[in-house]
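Query form — protein Metal ABC transporter permease

QUESTION: What is the three-dimensional structure of this chain?
INPUT:
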Amino acid sequence: MLTDREWLQLWQATLETLYMVGLSGLFTVILGTPLGILLVLTDKGQILQDGTINKVIAAIVNIFRSIPFIILIVLLIPFTRFIVGISIGPTAASVPLIIGAAPFFARLVETSLREVNRGVVEAAISMGASNWQIIRKVYLPESLPSIVSGITVTLVTLIGYSAMAGVVGGGGLGDMAIRYGYQRYNMPVMLVTTAVILILVQIVQSFGDYLSKVLDKK
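ANSWER: The structure tokens for Metal ABC transporter permease are given below.
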């Protein structure tokens, strides 16, 4: 069993994980959504067709998606220190979390938008809708349930990434599992922290699935 001090540390670590996932999740959606939209709309035959922009964005997204997260954390230490003034702790860990997850989420948004019925888009164009109106009133509403599912997948991924951030002093449940569990051969701490991570994943997944079904009017 855990001691009173370890339970207190577990609570603090859980709050740090929720902070990291919440902060990085917010900025991942803010950055990833427009990237995903541009990936679709600048493609061939789309309303903002531009092969150069499309290839540049696709290349950036693919590069950052292909770098293993644990390596990305280390590579971004100087950038993280420049942005937040420190390279350890939950706030610092949020920087590589955002950079690692935004391209991943952009691809999910791209997939969601490509599922929108082309006929609906063409109908909006024929009625004189502007590009912004097509994005705001056609693409986003039609793909919203799928995008919510993408957000859910991304948040679950971020929970796993945040645990890996503990390897380099990122704080949170991963940090506690490594420092107070693995390094001190304290199996109860490792088991409990793992259980909390699994519970967080189940809560996020269940709520995301429910919200996606509510929004799906098909």
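ADDITIONAL NOTE: The mean pLDDT is 89.
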